[in-house]
Amino acid sequence: MLRTYQQDAIYGVDQTHSSGKKSLVVMATGTGKTHVFVHYMAKMRGRTMIVANREELVQQAMKKVSEVGVPCDVEQANYWADEANLHGHAQCVVASIQSLNAKWRPRWGDAKKRMHRFNWSQFDLLVIDEAHHAVSKSYLDLIQLAISQNPNIKVLGVTATPDRLDKRGMGTVFDEVSYRYEMDKAINDAWLVPITQTMIHVESLDFSSVRTTAGDFNVGELAK
Fold it and tell me: Least enclosed by CB within 10 Å: which of 92, 128, 149, 153?
């Protein structure tokens, strides 16, 4: 059963899509973003592509899709969605953005990206999990391809962190924030526990030689 705010989020997305706009939902971590887009997908009854940037998010989405009884296929690494099935395709495909951008050579013709394997005119909905990444080229190429083949495809992004450190605007991808449920509201509603923190001072750590990338510490240099 969906919580009241999750139902409100689905209603907001429906309103945005009804006006032909690309939708963004902002919900705090732990408040059930996956529940929202999976139940919205099931409500639409069309074909859906769910895209995530980490293996655990792909697995999480697959699990939730199966729980609502929707047939699901996977496009990730050595897993290939069965797009050549003469008896029909799975109603939902969960894919990693890395695999969709990986090279693929069709039986005839030049090498392309795996995202070109799909007939986007068959899809009714494109879901971008962790949508703050959607301004990167890998996602922009995917969204552009989907819309070029299917101008009527609905686009939904979900994220807990819409404010990027590199200040690149989400408005370049999404037209409207359909629903927002921030951490303070979720805590006040007793869906999240209040935050407590402990500060630990380690004087031996020196970050002066670590550069920043996209507004945050360079991961490789930080690891060293």
Answer: 149
